[in-house]
Amino acid sequence: MIMPSFRASDGLELHYLIDDFNDPWRPPETLLLLHAAMGSSRRFYAWVPHLAREFRVVRLDMRGHGRSQIPKADQLSLDRLSQDVVELLDHLGVDRVHLAGSSAGGIVSIKTAVDHPQRLRSLALFATLPGLAPAKGVDFSSWLTAIKEKGIRRFLTDTIAQRFDTKQVEPGFVEWFLDEAVKNDPELLSRFVPMMARVDLSNRLADIGCPTLAVCPDSDPIHSLDEYQTMCNGIADVRLVVYDGLPHNITDAVPDRCAVELLRFLRERRV
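and the corresponding structure tokens:
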């Protein structure tokens, strides 16, 4: 598949996808999806059929992920990831966007919402806290050690129960998920994860001024439900939806449910 790309202001080439099945005579609003760490735009494949009939759906490969170029040491920061979002909107000629992020992609989405509020119509967060620093239940340094010693595939295989209930997903899904994850560069992850582990935007949540949807799994071993609920207390206009009995990766395990949830929210809160 040939993916369009643009060059960020620091020279890095970033790739993205657009799916738009709106009526040609109706200018559509744009919805931008940001994937989780160790992911890519492909992880939202099942969302597109639900969303692209009513929105122009843009999926970005965040820098260092998917087909986007790997940043150098001085090209990777949360500020830079958020700036990529804004520069993509400028590249597409989009003034305001509906922004939705999964896990680390949600952290980038929060950063964009608080630093560039004039660019957002709405915000949707899936299995997201305002940074990894507030997370109490995971030693992220142990993740990096395991990835270095075992590789990405073995690390994810050993921790798959933190991400999915394997009895509930389709046969073959886990292998596909692992195949996609190992396309990422371990060296990039060795920089990306510690960076996110230092992020805490809790004191900026009150700056989120747009309607916000927060969808959280109640059986997440990475972030507790109390942590999710505390985060939502800081956002003025927020809808909290809890998915019972699911681990962290809800956007992959129940993509149709997540996409329909988002579509319902956007229909109700469209501005």
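(Above: one complete record from the training split.) The chain has a mean pLDDT of 94.
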